[in-house]
Amino acid sequence: MTVVEMLEELQVKAMHDPALRETLLATRQTADPLEEFCRTCRGLGYEIYPMELVMAGEEFYATYRRSTNGGGENSPKLAGEDDFYEMFFSVL
Q1: Of the ranges 4-13, 35-44, 49-58, which one carries the lowest mean pLDDT score?
Q2: How far is CA 46 from its chain centroid?
Q3: pTM > 0.85: yes or no
């Protein structure tokens, strides 16, 4: 299962389980929110690590740029769509 698939599954669970949703949202209030979020995910059985989460967004963005106009300067700029961590919480 990819990082994106794990995030999507976890997001669906959190939307149906208020306690899980609050647990995940509480990670944003810690000294290192990304690390705490990933640690919480691993505790729930989702092997998500900070660098994998960041790289998933980077890989998505790179693939997206290559797929439009040959990846040249005219490729669309993304405004946050490559940050899966922030996108996860924007839906919650």
Answers
A1: 49-58
A2: 12
A3: no
Query: Which one of 25-29, 66-70, 83-87 scores highest in mean pLDDT?
Result: 25-29
- CA 67 to chain CA mean position, Å: 21
Question: Residues 38-58, buried b or exposed e (16+ Cβ, 10 A)?
Answer: bbbbeeeebebeeeebbebbe
CA distance 49 to 41: 9
Distance between CA atoms of 54 and 12, rounded to whole angstroms? 21
Residue 78 DSSP code: P
57 HSE (CA, 13 A, CB side):
17
| φ and ψ at residue 88, rounded to 5 degrees | -60, -50
